[in-house]
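User: Show me sequence and structure for the first protein, then do the same for the second.

Assistant: Starting with the first protein.
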Amino acid sequence: MATITMPQLGESVTEGTVLQWLKQPGDTVALDEPICEIETEKVTAELPSPFEGALGEILVPEGETVEVDAPLCTILETAASVPEPAPVPAAAPELASVAAEPPA
């Protein structure tokens, strides 16, 4: 699980307001896909997701103003966003050690 925080959208910006959530919990989120609209004193911008997966929990409701770096939401990893582990080679069958019999 990853947490997305309020970005600093300008040098002197210390807070932002979540205007609208573009995704709802459970929705699939692609890398760099906009998940919400944020407004500051200087700009209104869409916030792209730095992760892919599914939107988990929305921590800040629409209309609420929060400080920079405050948690906004969580992104849950989905099976499609988790790389498959490398295949493990099958273990070679153990050969029974046979003691060589001395020639008769």
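Switching to the second protein now.
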Amino acid sequence: MGFGTFRAMKRNARKGRNPSTGESLNIPSSTVPKFTPCGAFKEKLSKR
């Protein structure tokens, strides 16, 4: 049974807010991992 694949995804820059102070801030773009499960893995999980 296969598990799935990971790939690099680019997350765009966006505006955010500091929850403590309410101050607006810019969150820079970044590269993040994205997991895509294979069909057999999703099927095994759905049977639980």
